[in-house]
Design a protein that fits this description.
2 copies of one chain form a homodimer. With 143 residues, chain A is of the alpha+beta class. Chain A has 2 domains: 69 residues, Orthogonal Bundle (Arc Repressor Mutant, subunit A); 60 residues, Ferric-uptake regulator, C-terminal dimerisarion domain (Dna Ligase, domain 1, 2-Layer Sandwich). Chain A is 38% helix and 19% strand. Chain A is built from 5 helices and 5 strands, in the order H-H-H-E-E-E-E-H-E-H. In chain A, the strands form 2 sheets. The first copy, chain A, has a 3-stranded mixed β-sheet with strand order 4-3-5. A two-stranded antiparallel ribbon of chain A has the order 1-2. In chain A, helix 1 crosses helix 2. The N terminus of chain A is likely disordered. At the A-B interface, helix 4, strand 5 and helix 5 of A face helix 4 and strand 5 of B. Strand 5 of chain A pairs antiparallel with strand 5 of chain B, so a sheet runs across the interface. Chain A binds a DNA duplex (30 and 30 nucleotides) through helix 3.
DNA sequence: ATGAGAATAGTAATCATTCCTAAATTGTAA
DNA sequence: TTACAATTTAGGAATGATTACTATTCTCAT
């Protein structure tokens, strides 16, 4: 009748240089790099690391809640900042950018009280043009 | 010096049976099917339609704003209801479900007034357990 | 009807991601 | 330290979703 350990602790994890390097890389940037970008970053430190290792560790860390996995526009992206915040995706340059503000109201609580869904987390993604691309477009039009 | 037509009207579109069938299929369900599911639906009516046609038309219709493209969990999903609404993804059965409520506040306007981003649309995705899966899990635990 | 542009079916190619395996590495306990 | 079992790794093969390509067919304004 024992409850057993929570899923996330079922097996012990070894701390490898690869895993540490991946986490370092992810935490050193404010962008939301995809696996192949992270691979290139880590390769500067560990030249023979393989893509499989990058994917496996990102997946593990996301499952453990250390990082966020963002399902956005084609490739998956990863975010070293795991506290809830708003995202913006630029339709023009395809960047994924943090919005400098908190989720203003507690939407999650509101939705939770109104439905039977058990909400674990939520994500808000705005799409449109980032300030730079907006400028670029304006210049093009008046040219 | 002429401004030209807006991007979305630059080239004329032919209304083909394939396109109509794809839209019909999508509008006949409240789920959010992926391209391969839509392909199977449409194949009942047009047995020789090709995947390429399905993808191309879904992409076009999404660009035109007739349907929504949801970048969620692996495959892309499509939504025949293009008015803004909230989505829920079940971590257990992987379903993507409409939440029966409107975006309560106008988050978009708030964010718009606070930033320089030009927001075209936004998406809110809750993740967790749907009512059925929540029940299933409870039964498993007490068993 | 007809002709120019647009869309199609079918297939090949691409891209991201996962899977596989033998060898190497990690933490632990003597 | 040493030894060991579990875990992780590199590298490459395999998969799966999506896109690209092309010769042919279709659409619709004239």
């Amino acid at each position: 009748m024992s409850a057993g350990k929570p899923e996330s602790q079922k097996k012990k994890k070894y701390l490898t240089p690869q895993r540490r390097a991946i986490l370092n890389a992810l935490e050193s940037v404010v962008t939301h790099p995809s696996a192949d970008v992270i691979y290139e970053m880590v390769r500067k430190e560990l030249p023979i690391i393989s893509m499989g290792t990058v994917y496996r560790n990102l997946e593990q860390m996301a499952t453990e809640g250390m990082i966020l996995r963002l399902d956005g526009g084609g490739q998956k992206r990863y975010d070293g900042n795991s506290t809830p915040h708003l995202h913006f995706r630029c339709l023009c340059c395809n960047a994924m950018i943090d919005l400098p503000m908190n989720p203003h109201d507690d939407i999650q609580k509101i939705v939770q009280t109104l439905t039977d869904f058990e909400i674990k987390s939520y994500e808000v993604i705005f799409t449109g043009l980032c300030p730079e691309c907006k400028l670029t477009k304006k210049k093009e039009q008046t040219a």
